[in-house]
Design brief:
heterodimer; A: 447 residues; alpha/beta; D-Maltodextrin-Binding Protein, domain 2; 6-stranded mixed β-sheet; 4-stranded mixed β-sheet; B: 462 residues; alpha+beta; MetI-like fold; Immunoglobulin-like; 5-stranded antiparallel β-sheet; elongated
Chain lengths: 447, 462
């Protein structure tokens, strides 16, 4: 389920961007060329003429083309030959088989920190050298080093980051209601009320049939009400789900989920899947105006509706709760090396550079956490805003909590956190019952 | 698991093979002893591939599952019957078991009954081939595709779901939907709304006065084209009337004052307004294009003004087919759609084999068609019906795909069946293949009686 979702993410952003600004692609090409010509930035890369490297990742199609731009940049800079292999969605199994067969790729892009930890503990991946570490320190917020480390060793470079802290809205309905995108939770609830007054029947559309949309809601609210440290502790189940901080987050959610005039009948919400929750908002006679989910919503809007992202469909960042700092919940892919060679170390150093990031984001399929990336490299305003929010969040970027939990808790249809939050949506007044159930399921899964 | 029943059934058939070979060989009268030996050897050669396949693909997995079910999730420590204990104490598995029982009782019965009806029909109509093809066609569609189709059929949104579209069409023919669904008072202190949507004035209104009634949450799409800009009502000018305005108190684009008739705000025409005294409606009217109304003909005094709930009733949107209550019947209906054709074909074949003269004789003796069917056809057809029924029972026990696809994630636990639960705990998140094997073994135990029954029948027939 996780990988499927991830795939949706990338495909969606990709499709979105391509449909968005065709002319933007040309512009971004030239901008990435400009940076590639900059002599100072690549002076640290050695001459690797005659060397070759095998790189594996899940990407195919348009995403693969984008990633190959990055690879071409490395070849141009060093003369090394890069061979790309797509593993398909199930990268963990493919890599596991290749390792057992004694022929792992030199470098692979892992979609989860959990896989990095797993391969680090089995000793299959090698720590990065000082050059890579220095490049990461220079270009990324410290959280990205932590996310790429296991124990005291750093193992990789996060080459892209996705943003799941975005709320998408129907511009026409916002204009009709005369409201601006809210920045705080209270404004958000008030906006929903105004939308309801203006005649929008179900202002906030929830895709409750897909449990992961609800865990993403919770994670965003929790990161803002409890803070990043508590978020980390809840992620690893160091604190129980019966903790008062969880109570606060659920009560905050209930301010919205508990109001039938704002989110409609919960029975209907629980019948609505993710795609339905998006198309309910972006429809000619839409009865909903707002839907929360990650950047990949843009792709669904472009594929499944007549709306255009950036014109009549826009997003605002997930609102702050009680003056919380800018925070982003998201995902990403980390490059790790299975062989400790000069060429793979050089490749990782290159991936951490703003040039590689510029090539990665140039088609709009990906966004990057590289803080030295010139944001003009993005082909359109939407992906640019998505990427800038990640950089702005800095230390307050957190990985999707349910993706880091054992799948029995955080990734199973009709069980664990998914089911518990669906039950909570059905009865948002029962915060205590929801917490007890969450804790019971978490205790079972985190053995 | 899914391949087990047919494989075992075949093995039942193949047991007879050596006997058959022996008898044909025996008919050639040369050197019986060496021939017998040769025959046995030949039989072994021919049987070996089948036996080997059976051993590797059926017997070994069964034994392995049996052993695996006694170990924990990583397969490292022995639990004894621990997995079986958790199997029968886990709420999800018990729901699955309950649903399986419902499936086993309801689905085969209905499919067999429907198949019988269709089979009888095929004897009476002239366009048999077309009819048979139509009914049998769903069998050609994969379970997965059928699941996707029915997920759409049952969609709650009447614009998408066929089932609800039909219900709503029928419902709205007899009870037209309200004009302003979802509307609520703009000033709930002066005009509180009851739970059913009825809006009543908080304080009584005396005749001769003018009452503004602001409303909110009316979709601009629901405001009829005839509506004009709202106007403040003029004084009724008599002691026997109450006037007022019902309007949509929301300026599109924002900026309107609450409870004030702003420049662009529209009246809500056609709204029922009632004057109530002592719980009785004593006068009523409907609003005009600009939202104004005058309830006249009232005796001077105090009244409650009321906008009845019928103005605001939420539109009928059909039934939540895929909700926790209806999900299993809904999926069973999809199963029936697929399998009715299968039952029909088998039963029709059985009916074709019934000797015509038995039916003719009954008719000659003066039996009605019903009596012929009840007393002659049914008894002669009974063996076929039983075979169809038992085959369906086995089939229903392993139902997985339909449930997996049709039930939305939030309802999946309510629709759960054992095969799905087995997959979920072993691969779909639980990653506990010990418990999964235990469920598999349990399913096998459930299938065995039906299989034994079928094999015995086969043997008897041969």
């Amino acid at each position: 389920m996780k990988t499927t979702r991830r795939r949706v993410t990338h495909l969606a952003i990709g499709a979105a961007a391509m449909a968005l600004v065709v002319s933007g692609c040309g512009g971004s090409d030239s901008s990435s060329d400009d940076t590639a010509d900059d002599p100072t930035s690549e002076s640290s890369l050695p001459d690797l003429e005659g060397e070759s490297i095998e790189v594996a990742a899940v990407w195919t199609g348009a995403e693969q083309k984008t990633f190959e731009k990055v690879l071409a940049g490395f070849s141009d800079a060093t003369g090394a030959e890069v061979k790309y292999t797509s593993t398909g969605d199930d990268i963990a199994t493919v890599l596991g088989t290749k390792i057992k067969g004694g022929q792992p790729p030199d470098v692979a892009m892992l979609p989860q920190p959990g896989l990095l930890a797993q391969f680090a503990e089995s000793g299959d991946i090698q720590p990065v050298n000082e050059d890579v570490a220095a490049a990461v320190d220079e270009n990324y917020a410290a959280i990205w080093k932590d996310l790429a480390s296991n124990g005291s060793d750093q193992y990789g470079v996060w080459i892209d980051a996705s943003n799941k802290s975005t709320v998408w809205y129907n511009q026409t309905l916002f204009d009709d209601a005369g409201i601006e995108p809210p920045t705080t939770w209270d404004e958000f609830v008030a906006s929903a009320q105004t939308l309801s007054d203006s005649g929008v029947q179900i202002p906030v559309s929830l895709g409750g049939a897909d449990g992961w949309t609800l865990t993403d809601w919770f994670e965003n609210v929790y990161l803002r009400t409890a803070g990043a440290d508590m978020y980390d502790q809840l992620t690893t189940h160091e604190i129980p789900w019966t903790d008062p901080s969880v109570t606060t987050a659920l009560e905050t959610l209930a301010e919205l989920w508990g109001e039938e005039t704002l989110v409609g009948d919960s029975g209907t919400a629980l019948q609505t899947d993710f795609t339905g929750s998006v198309t309910n908002v972006f429809d000619a006679d839409a009865q909903s105006a707002v839907v929360y989910e990650g950047g990949f919503v843009a792709g669904v809007i472009n594929d499944a509706t007549d709306f255009t992202v950036g014109e009549d469909a826009n997003f605002f960042e997930f609102p702050a709760v009680d003056d919380s700092e800018p925070s982003v919940v998201g995902g990403g892919d980390v490059a790790v090396q299975f062989t400790d060679s000069e060429v793979s170390q050089a490749f990782l150093t290159y991936l951490a550079s703003p040039e590689a990031a510029a090539a990665m984001v140039s088609t709009g399929s990906f966004t990057s956490a590289n803080q030295n990336l010139d944001s003009s490299a993005y082909p359109d305003e939407t992906s640019k805003a998505l990427g800038e929010a990640i950089v702005e969040a800095g230390e307050n970027f957190r990985f999707d909590m349910s993706d880091l939990a054992p799948s029995a808790f955080g990734g199973t249809v009709g069980a664990g956190e998914w089911k518990d939050l669906q039950d909570f949506l059905a009865d948002p007044s029962d915060v205590e019952g929801a917490q007890e159930s969450l804790e019971a399921n978490a205790a079972k899964a985190f053995k | 698991m899914s391949t087990t029943p047919p494989m075992v059934a075949q093995s039942g058939g193949r047991d007879d093979v050596p006997a058959a070979t022996d008898s044909t060989d025996g008919s050639i009268p040369t050197n019986p002893t060496s021939h017998d030996r040769k025959g046995t050897w030949l039989a072994a050669v021919f049987l070996a591939p089948a036996l080997l396949l059976l051993l590797v693909m059926v017997l070994y997995p069964i034994v392995f599952s049996l052993v695996r079910s006694l170990y924990d999730a990583p397969g490292s420590s022995f639990l004894g019957f621990g997995n079986y204990v958790s199997l029968f104490t886990d709420g999800n598995t018990l729901t699955a078991l309950k649903n399986n029982v419902i499936w086993m009782v309801v689905a085969p019965t209905l499919v067999t009954a429907l198949g019988l009806m269709f089979a009888v029909l095929t004897e009476r109509i002239s366009w048999v081939t077309v009819f048979k093809t139509l009914v049998f066609m769903p069998m050609a569609v994969s379970f997965l595709a059928s699941g996707v189709i029915f997920r759409l059929v049952y969609d709650e949104e009447p614009d998408r779901g066929l089932a609800n579209a039909m219900l709503v069409a029928v419902h709205d023919t007899f009870a037209p939907s309200s004009s302003y669904p979802g509307g609520r008072p703009g000033d709930p202190d002066a005009f509180p709304a009851a739970d059913d949507g009825t809006i009543t004035s908080a304080e009584s209104v005396s005749t001769g006065s003018t009452v503004p009634i602001p409303l909110l949450a009316v979709s601009p799409d629901d405001v009829p084209a005839v509506a004009t800009v709202a106007e403040e009502a003029t004084e009724p000018g008599s002691d026997s009337a109450i006037s007022g305005t019902v309007w949509l108190d929301f300026t599109l684009g924002g900026g309107g004052e609450p409870d004030v008739v702003d420049e662009t705000e529209k009246g809500l025409p056609g709204m029922e307004v009632e004057a109530v005294q002592d719980g009785k409606v004593v006068g009523s009217t409907t609003t005009s294009a600009n939202g104004t109304f005058t309830v006249s003909g009232l005796a001077p005094g105090d009244y409650e003004l009321r906008l009845p709930a019928a103005n605001f009733a939420a539109p009928f949107n059909g039934v939540t087919w895929l909700g926790p209550n209806l999900i299993t019947p809904a999926i069973i209906a999809a199963y029936i759609w697929i399998y009715a054709g299968f039952a029909m074909v088998l039963i029709a074949a059985g009916m074709a084999a019934i000797p015509r003269d038995a039916l003719e004789a009954a008719r000659m003796d003066g039996a009605t068609e019903w009596q012929v069917f009840r007393r002659v056809t049914m008894p002669l057809l009974a063996p076929v019906l039983v075979v169809v029924f038992v085959t369906l029972v086995i089939n229903v026990l392993k139902v997985f795909d339909l449930v997996f696809i049709i039930a939305p994630g939030s309802v999946q636990p309510d629709a759960n069946v054992l095969a799905l639960q087995m997959w979920k705990v072993s691969f779909g998140g639980g990653q506990d293949q010990g418990l999964g094997s235990a469920i598999g073994v349990f399913l096998l135990l459930l299938v065995i009686p039906a299989m034994v029954f079928n094999i015995r029948r086969f043997k008897k027939e041969q």
